[in-house]
Amino acid sequence: MSELALNNGLFSASATLIVLFSLLVVLARNPVRSTLLLIMSFLPTSLIYVMLKAPFVGILQILVYAGAIMMLFTFVVMMVNPRPEENELGHLPGADPAGTRRIELNVLGGLAIAGIPLIIMVRSAAANLPLGPEHPSEFGELSSISKLIFENPMENPLTVSFELISFLVLVGIIAAINFSRRDPSHKKGTP
Amino acid sequence: MFDFNLANCLTLSVIVFLVGCYGLLTRRSLVMILLSIEVVLNGVNFSLISFNHFLWGTREFGHYLYMLSIGVAAAEAAIGLGMAIVFFRNYRDISRERASRLSEGES
Amino acid sequence: MPPVALALLPVFPAATALILALFGRRFNHTLVGLVACVGVALSFLVGVGFVSSVSGGAESTYVLGSWLSTNVVSASLALRLDSVAFAMVMLVSGFGFLITLYSIGYMHDDSEVARFFASLNLFVASMLILVLADNLLLIFLGWEGVGVCSYLLIGHYWKDQAVPLAAYRAFFTNRIGDLLFLLGVAFLFAHFGTFEMHAIATKAAGLSAESVDGNSLAAWGALLILGGAFAKSAQAPLHVWLPDAMAGPTPVSALIHAATMVTAGVYLVARLSPLYALFPQIRGVIYICALLTLVIGAVLAVVQFDIKKILAYSTLSNLGLMFLALAADSPGAARLHLFGHAAFKALLFLGAGSVILAAHHEQDVRKLAGVLKHLPITRAAFWIGCIGGVGLVPFLAAGFFSKEMVLEAVAESPLTLGSLVVSGETLKWIITAVEVLSAVYMFRLLGYLESNVPGEAAKGRHGHAPHEDSLTVKLVLGILCVVGLGFGFISAPASFGGSGSGFFAMINGGEQMPEGPSFLHALPAAIVALIVSTLTFRVFSNASKRKALLRRLANFPQSSGGPLATKFFFDVVYEAALFAPLRALGRFCASVVESVAEGGFELLGGAGQVGSALLRLVMNGKIQHYAAVLLAAVFLMLLLLPGR
């Protein structure tokens, strides 16, 4: 098979998997299952990233997203441990199956009304855009990206913002630790 | 089946975004809402990379933006999940109905 | 005296007024009065220093600076002292000083002396500005000032229910006059191009009566200014406030409503007399109004029982006389009577004050019967004042020569208004007849006070007969008795062998005193006056004869709603035509504003409720609802914003 056909085929398959898994994420009743399915949807995504000449980004997707963020979600899901029947279409008293159905259908309809024109618009715009130039040889590799970010640090805005983003993450960590601390001297458990 | 071009990549991105929105608006549990937000972000990140591949050629700005995006997503997930934990600690229940009634006070 | 000292004249009393207004409440009563006296006395002394500056027709001007200067109008703050103004300055500061001194004794027991003396001083300052003003705008400043002080002083006993209303009526009537005055000033400026009174008078003198159109701006200006003068000097129909002004303390009545403020109108018209000489029709209007005032004052004075009201109506009558002289185009006679009237009327008012004080604020003449027996100095004051007021005897009576001069002037000047023409001689006989009434009311008053049977007040309280307590009261009365007597001498014309021409020349800016009537000419009127006075006095001072007369008069059918009781219906007309409609208008406006305001507020409240109802639909606390709204907004933006 030609490379082009291979690319197209791989892309088609991965795209289908991504959409399938994402749908299952939002439709699954068990939260653990949802989390796992999301992790699984990252794999085809990484594959497409590699095909898009972004190998570093593809690795990052697995390492950071699937490795760190999803770990977080898993821990929290374990901790909170909602019982399956509490979760969706609840059979608990106070749950409202008919109401929930109504909400779901409404949302579906709204997203369809908004989404279909959006897709049409996007496709027509994309068809008219001129393709960019050839990629240089080391495009998308870590060396190239690090050169982009860190060359000329004094005049390079990317350096500063990169450091700021790391600072942001640190702030997020500190904030989360701080407000979820359990302080025994407070009565109601809010820190 | 689908050509590997910008239009299809962007279409994929939009579809994943919409799927995530559906989950965001529909799920009953707070943690699942946060998970749906991750789906949304996944779709957005995909569009960043595909734009960079097809339209810009020389430098990898799109990749850099992607890194910013997952940095922010990480921080936001941490804080959001922290809040969900605190919420659970207080009310033993992380449903959206309980969150709507937050202004009414205990139980 | 350098011209700059002219500025000091009003400054001294204004400064003491300020001191008393700020700190007067901490001083004791005598100190307050002394501070006030010092202020006026300083003015008087500085004024005396100017006597050489105005002799022989000279004048002294001091310009403080320019007040208005635009392309179209300009006026300056200029004070001008000629011999006329000098005489007025002496009058105002001299009488002001004496009456302030008197008030120290009269107001000794009063609780609000600081405000009283401050207002009194401010009045003197404003009156001095009025008299010294060079131009019409500056005179308006003094005009307003005396109006305000009159209001403050009439309203001194504000705790009494009827008093604030009287003060308000005085101010309100003056306000009407001020409006007319300002319009008149504008018209005169449009015609003559200047505000300066001296310049206007000179220009007017240069014109001849035939060359000026009766409808010109100058005529309308003269007429409108007349309106202002009528309000200030209580001429009909704007005279209604003067009897009510008696609600103020007696020294106020003496100073403001007899000697000075009410003469401001006379002063102004006299200053502009060359202008009025051009318009016989306007002088016809003055004739009519002045005659009306003369008659109203004289008739109503005969039937009053309040001692101050009798004197108030007498003042009204005499002011009418002054305006008659002005209508006859004789400002000299008007000014002479202005001074003469001040002399005897102030004396009478202050004497009345002494009586009121001794009788513990009793003012009803029937209860004051026979009280003068116990008050020797006051008795002298009343006799001199009444004789002077009626003008009974030449030389001793202050009013004799001045009234004669007015009559002579009227005789030579007929009334012409449209097609109505009344000869001067006729007018003279009408006035003489009314003046007989003055003998009646004056000696009726004197008769009551000298009655052989004492009334309640004369019997005294707790066994003490009424007596003259206060030193300053007695002192000032004494001084004014001398002045009252002396005036007759200094006002006598040459035909009587008097040296009046000097005084006359001074108060009239060098004008020659006209030949007075011969002694024989004046004799008949004098004899009639003497007979009437004696008769009236004998009837009223004898209690039994008085009661008999009153019983006989009571047989005449009299309605309590008749002209005498309702002061010739003026009040009723004012109420119906002016006050009642204004009150109704006020009520209507208030109701409109209320409903608009209420409606407005209800609208605001309703809008708030609607807004919050709308918001309640959106803000329902459901997080996915908020997320949906957010997403919807984003999608809308994406879809609708073109080319982004």
Derived from helix and strand composition plus strand pairing, the structural class of chain B reads: mainly alpha
Question: How would the global form of chain A be characterised?
Answer: extended
* Cα-to-Cα separation, first versus last residue of chain A: 62 Å
Helix share, percent of chain B = over 70%
Strand percentage of chain B lies at under 5%
Can you tell me the CATH topology of the domain at 1-85 in chain A?
Four Helix Bundle (Hemerythrin (Met), subunit A)
- Into which percent range does the helicity of residues of chain A fall? over 70%
Uncertain stretches of chain A: 89-93
CATH homologous superfamily heading of the domain at 1-85 in chain A: NADH-ubiquinone/plastoquinone oxidoreductase chain 6, subunit NuoJ
How much is the radius of gyration of chain B in Å?
Answer: 18 Å
**Unreliable segments of 5+ consecutive residues of chain B:** none
Outline of chain B, from the CA principal axes? Answer: elongated
Task: Determine the structural class of chain A based on helices, strands and strand pairing.
Answer: mainly alpha
Biggest β-sheet description of chain B: none
Distance between the termini of chain B: 54 Å
Radius of gyration of chain A: 22 Å
Brief overview, please?
In chain A, 73% of the residues lie in helices and 0% in strands.
Task: Provide structural commentary.
The complex is a heterotrimer of chains A (191), B (107) and C (644). With 191 residues, chain A is mainly α. Chain A has 7 helices and no strands. Among the domains of chain A are: 1-85, NADH-ubiquinone/plastoquinone oxidoreductase chain 6, subunit NuoJ (Four Helix Bundle (Hemerythrin (Met), subunit A), Up-down Bundle), CATH 1.20.120.1200; 137-181. The radius of gyration of chain A is 22 Å and the shape is extended. The termini of chain A are far apart. Residues 89-93 of chain A have low confidence and may be disordered. By secondary structure, chain B is mainly α. Chain B is 77% helix and 0% strand. The longest helix of chain B is centred in the C-terminal third of the chain and has 31 residues, at 61-91. The relative contact order of chain B is 0.13. Chain C is mainly alpha-helical and 644 residues long. Chain C has helices at residues 5-23, 29-48, 83-106, 113-132, 136-154, 162-192, 197-206, 217-232, 241-244, 250-259, 264-271, 273-277, 280-302, 307-327, 331-358, 376-390, 398-411, 424-449, 456-459, 471-490, 500-507, 519-541, 543-554, 570-618, 623-640; strands spanning 60-69, 74-81, 415-417, 420-422. In chain C, strand 1 and strand 2 (74-81) form a beta hairpin. In chain C, helix 14 packs antiparallel against helix 15. Chain C starts with a helix and ends with a helix. The mean pLDDT of chain C is 84.
